[in-house]
Amino acid sequence: MRLSILIFLFMMSATNAQNQGKKILPPKLNPGDTVAIVATARKNITDNLKPAIKLLESWGLKVKIGSSIGLDYNQLAGTDQQRAADLQEQFDNPNIKAVWCVRGGYGTVRIIDKIDFTAFKKNPKWLIGFSDVTVLHNHLNNLGFASIHGLMPLNVATASPAAVESLRKCLFGQPLQYEIPTDSESQLGAAEGEFVGGNLSILYSLLGSVSQVNCDNKILFLEDLDEYLYHIDRMLMNLKRCGCLSKLKGVVVGGMTKMKDNEVPWGKNANQIVAEHLEGLNIPVVFDFLAGHISDNRALILGAHAKLTVSKDKTVLRFD
């Protein structure tokens, strides 16, 4: 009897270990559902939301403008308490099916520990955004939920049609696959696993916290904006020393946009710096993927299972 119990407990433990890495994808949206637009970081006025509202309504969705939109507290969209209260309200409201962060900048990390995710866990919903929203993506990922790295309301007017369409596919649960030419700097190979990551500067800043990215056996996505090249090296050096790079299955590098250099050049561009820190790892690596601080910012499902194939002629990224 005791042996049977031990065998049962062992099997349950093994099952839990296998399921531990599986993330919950929130329910797909349907016409008539409501999307809330909130500001978790930099302040934003309401006038520039017209393209985003028109887009959501064209998809048959309703829009709720959060109380943080239009607030002004120096650089931020209201105080930490105001921004946190707005996000909390949208997470807790069962009638809200997706929460769309209006823009990035800085400030989400200031409110992440003020959020109670109890209601979210019972009623998960899509969280959408990129850049500073990487804080929320990784926090939700560590809680066991997938989210969408994609364009934000501020970017709708300048986004490519393909980027807009990719977000629609994500929200409405349609198959998502990308095929692009393989860059000459890419490393060939194939891998599959959970897709994680986001903005490199934010990932770097989250190390050592409960929101830290877990890279073990994952496909890591990286992008960044307006950074000095030696900063890129320093951040990757820290990820490497923390053990975040050694167990990766693959790497997707998006836009490394508006990189800066010093009067005395660093000597390598951003892609070359990434390649240097991944040297010796026998994993597929693709550069210049269509995501990040670019107009063609294709949606990615962080926390979902993905398959990456980097061949000589083309690169294919598919989300299951």
Strand order of the largest sheet: 6-13-12-7-8-9-10
Q: What portion of the residues fall into strands of 2 or more residues? A: 15-25%
Classified in CATH, the superfamily of the largest domain is LD-carboxypeptidase A C-terminal domain-like
CATH topology of the largest domain: Glucose Oxidase, domain 1
Q: How many helical elements?
A: 9
Defining traits:
Rossmann fold; single chain; 320 residues; alpha/beta; 7-stranded mixed beta sheet
In short:
Belongs to the peptidase S66 family. With 320 residues, this protein is α/β, with parallel strands linked by helices.
Descriptive overview:
By secondary structure, the protein is α/β, with parallel strands linked by helices. The chain has 2 domains: 138 residues, Rossmann fold (3-Layer(aba) Sandwich); 144 residues, LD-carboxypeptidase A C-terminal domain-like (Glucose Oxidase, domain 1, 3-Layer(bba) Sandwich), CATH 3.50.30.60. It has 9 helices and 13 strands. The chain has a 7-stranded mixed sheet with strand order 6-13-12-7-8-9-10. Helix 8 runs parallel beside helix 9. The longest helix is centred in the N-terminal third of the chain and has 18 residues. Keywords: Carboxypeptidase, Hydrolase, Protease, Serine protease, Signal. Belongs to the peptidase S66 family.
What secondary-structure arrangement, pairings included, does this model have?
Elements: H1 2-19, E1 34-38, H2 50-58, E2 62-65, H3 80-92, E3 96-101, H4 118-122, E4 126-129, H5 134-143, E5 147-149, H6 161-171, E6 176-181, E7 189-199, H7 200-206, E8 218-225, H8 229-241, E9 250-257, H9 270-277, E10 285-286, E11 300-302, E12 305-310, E13 314-319
Helix pairs in contact: 8-9
Family: Belongs to the peptidase S66 family.
Organism: Flavobacterium aurantiibacter
Domain LD-carboxypeptidase C-terminal: 192-308
